[in-house]
Amino acid sequence: MILPALRAWPTAVLLIAGVAFAFDAGKAGFSIRYQEESSPYRVGAVFLMPGEVLKIQVEGRETGTFSLDTIPGETAPDSSGPTNPAIPAIPAIPASAHSAPSAVPAAVTAPKPSAPSPPSASAADTKASGVRSWKWRAPDSAGLYPLMVRRDGTADSILLNAIVMVPSDRIKEGYLEGYHIGSYPKSPLKGLEFYRTPKGFIRVDERTARVRISPHFRLGQFICKQSPSLPAFLLLKERLILKLELVLEKANQAGYACETFHVMSGYRTPFYNRLIGNVKFSAHQFGGAADIFIDAAPQDGEMDDLNGDGRSDGSDSELLFNLVDGMSVNEFFLPYIGGIGKYSKNESHGAFVHVDVRGFRAVW
Ligand SMILES: [Ca+2]
Ligand SMILES: [Ca+2]
Fold it and tell me: What is the pTM of this model?
């Protein structure tokens, strides 16, 4: 079931894949931090409640000055820098002082006591580092508000698509603007934040379905399969998007050339989750899970024959599963740890792998 609005896009990907495809991870020359996430991607997304204040920071000790542009919205420089551990207390080193003594052999640099010292942390350094942290207040109306972080004077930038959600208190008898949501468990599983009853939902119409939420994924890929009609509402955790990008990059490095994953199942409403007989606390209901497969050659709606045995089945799922599982040993992957399950082909679905970001390891 493919939404009309999305039909044109997979076709374009197929054409790209058919001609000398080279995977581009889509990373900027710097990273930003927002909510609890860190993202190096040139395109990202963040989901906010009306009026919520979003803090965005350029990470690390990047040189140059940065600016944040919004259309529309309001921005104000964040003056709380020194109190925030993510903002280095040490001012950025000016570009001219990059050959710091510690980076050069001692014999060359051993500074004479009388040698003029490089400029100390001062107003000049602050000017060189510039503003790199902002607070942006989300508007009161639900919708898409693109934010652009730019390294001034360069083409280096990150587009963060801020999407203001519709508050969940507008759900009436299980329906939000006519869309069947159902009802969430009254309290979260084991008190975990991941399973908290959602405060708001992302409204997806034909336009926002096509919005990029990362270099290789669009919002429409995560709509619940309960109905093809729009608008729909969904939940999506920013961390899941980042995890999918990491896994996609790894898959391409492993030789499985693919521009995106086929998301067989992303968000599921409690209504739909119950309909298909899934567990009460399915990670899909909280926007933190995706059932995925690689579908690039051929792009036929089925897992590709990754192991080249002429069949699309559980052994292909196992290869993708092992790839994700193998990432778990890396320290950088710790925030993305979650559930991972492999599924073979049966009469109701093809081969796929479940990944989620529930915060603790679960394997099946
Ligand atoms: Ca395929
Ligand atoms: Ca196979």
Answer: 0.80
